[in-house]
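Whiteboard transcription, Tuesday session. T.W. wrote the structure tokens on the left side:
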């Protein structure tokens, strides 16, 4: 699978990768989003939008986690599904042992039990981000979107999840790919101006 093609025989290869909305994806919920895929199987996919910070401070919902949340320490809208629930995503240092409160998603990313005391988790992770909601796809739905060209598929790095500047994430992720995708990163917000 090459950067940007989004298709491959091994669905599990998409877990832990990024979906980057193509400029032609104008649907407001996903326009210019960067999504970390937490799971992808034959029954569907689940991911979180990395670049939709809210104005709600983490301390309002999870006061114990506020001092440990990566900057900006606000809730992020992880997607349109399940907005009444919170999900904690952590970046895992290379070779670090996982505390029992963290489930590895893939490679350098894990989900943290937000009911656990932060002090038992924080020393073992590279940062924490809290999301309200998630993005979900049913059986074959994501594959159809990839085939129609709605998303670029690229590799994720821990800084994508924990960026202090989420508003510029879409451009930064595309720019670091080089070539045609770096050119796409310069496209105007209004695709008709390109």
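and on the right, the sequence the group agreed on:
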């Amino acid at each position: 699978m090459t950067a940007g093609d989004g298709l491959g025989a091994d669905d599990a290869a998409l877990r832990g990768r990024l979906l980057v909305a193509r400029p032609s994806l104008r649907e407001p919920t996903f326009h210019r989003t960067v999504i970390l895929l937490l799971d992808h199987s034959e029954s569907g996919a689940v991911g979180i939008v990395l670049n939709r910070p809210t104005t709600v401070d983490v301390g309002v919902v999870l006061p114990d986690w506020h001092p440990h949340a990566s900057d900006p320490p606000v809730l992020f809208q992880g997607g349109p599904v399940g907005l009444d629930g919170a999900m904690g995503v952590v970046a895992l240092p290379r070779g670090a042992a996982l505390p029992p409160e963290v489930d590895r998603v893939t490679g350098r990313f894990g989900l943290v039990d937000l009911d656990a005391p932060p002090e038992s988790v924080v020393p073992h992770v590279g940062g924490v981000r809290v999301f309200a909601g998630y993005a979900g796809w049913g059986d074959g739905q994501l594959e159809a979107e990839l085939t129609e060209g709605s998303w670029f598929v690229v590799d994720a790095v821990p800084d994508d999840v924990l960026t202090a500047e989420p508003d510029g994430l879409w451009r930064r992720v595309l720019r670091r790919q080089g070539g045609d995708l770096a050119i796409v990163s310069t496209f105007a917000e209004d695709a008709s101006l390109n």
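Someone added at the bottom: The chain has one domain: 11-193.
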